[in-house]
Write a structure and sequence with these properties.
By secondary structure, this protein is an alpha+beta fold. The chain contains 12 helices and 4 strands, in the order ααβααβαβαβαααααα. The protein is elongated and about 100 Å long. It starts with a helix and ends with a helix. The relative contact order is 0.17.
């Protein structure tokens, strides 16, 4: 097969169906940009999980005098010194689960509250004796929260056991939901792109039916006839893949590093690096090349069969 003939036929096909080729490029670019974006979103969520779950604490809040009057969990009164010693001793026995235990007194809790919410109207009405003592527990495995909850929840002197991981799970659940929504839109765009590719290839084959008929008469093989159409679709898809890669690079540059500069404004978030973006580009380009080529191949098998 002469490469010059194939390349010339590709150029002819792209020029004859310029509008539909443009539609294929745009749809492939958008669908693969969403595909790459969903992959990067998954990486971002996993990076954030690794970063934040490592900082998760479980807090055992102890009953104070105010709780004894209003909270049914503290009906037996404020926590005693013996109860605090027993809680700490039990935590020391759980060395396989517990990495570190930090005690926070009511005065320390009041000081931290004033630092964080000093402008709140409620802050002026609070006193240190209304704040709760607590044990802040750093777990070796954040997934082992239930072990602490089972051991201490409902115990005398314990007002509640709270897990910060639950708050993070709600956030990550929202992010995962957004990611699945992006994947659903991506799937619809891929279907649209495939339909456009199939339609474009068939229109191109119909417009050159005389040439393909002559080639059949002179004994050309089916693959020899189909190759220019398949490569037309592959070239259009590859252009769309290149545009999608450009979208991802521009988005990473302007959203995280510059423009919106989220990396500077949201210092608490550990954003994915350029390496995560660059490793997705070969996959996007390969998909943009193979997907249209295979769609065109299967679309033409029946259409050009004699």
């Amino acid at each position: 097969m002469r490469a010059q003939f194939v390349l010339s036929e590709i150029g002819v096909g792209l020029r004859r169906n310029l509008t539909m080729t443009f539609a294929v490029v745009v749809s492939v670019a958008l669908s693969l940009a969403l595909f790459g974006g969903s992959l990067l979103m998954s990486d971002q969520v996993n990076t954030m999980k690794g970063y934040w779950y490592d900082k998760v604490n479980v807090s055992i809040f102890l009953c104070n005098k105010s709780d004894a009057e209003s909270d049914p969990h503290c009906a037996k009164g404020a926590v005693t010194a013996d109860q605090k010693k027993q809680i700490l001793a039990d935590l020391d026995k759980m060395s396989t689960v517990v990495q570190k235990v930090t005690y926070e007194s009511a005065d320390q809790a009041y000081k931290h509250y004033k630092e964080q919410f000093g402008d709140s109207p409620l802050a002026s009405s609070l006193t240190p004796d209304q704040m709760q003592e607590s044990y802040r527990i750093k777990l070796k495995d954040p997934e082992k929260y239930q072990v602490i909850a089972t051991a201490f929840d409902g115990r005398d002197g314990v007002q509640s056991v709270q897990d910060q991981k639950g708050i993070l799970d709600n956030l990550f659940g929202l992010l995962n939901g957004m990611n699945w929504a992006a994947r659903a839109v991506m799937a619809m765009m891929l279907v649209v792109a495939l339909m456009l590719i199939v339609n474009t290839v068939r229109v191109s084959a119909f417009s050159r039916r005389r040439e393909t008929g002559i080639m059949r008469l002179v004994g050309a093989s089916g693959f020899y006839i189909q190759a220019p159409f398949i490569m037309e679709a592959a070239v259009a898809g590859l252009i769309g893949g290149g545009v999608a890669c450009g979208f991802l690079l521009i988005a990473r540059y302007f959203i995280i590093d510059h423009g919106l500069a989220l990396s500077e404004k949201l210092n608490l978030i550990n954003f994915i690096g350029w390496d995560a973006v660059l490793t997705k580009l070969p996959l996007i380009l390969a998909t943009s090349l193979l997907m249209p080529a295979l769609a065109a191949f299967f679309a033409l098998r029946k259409y050009l069969k004699v």
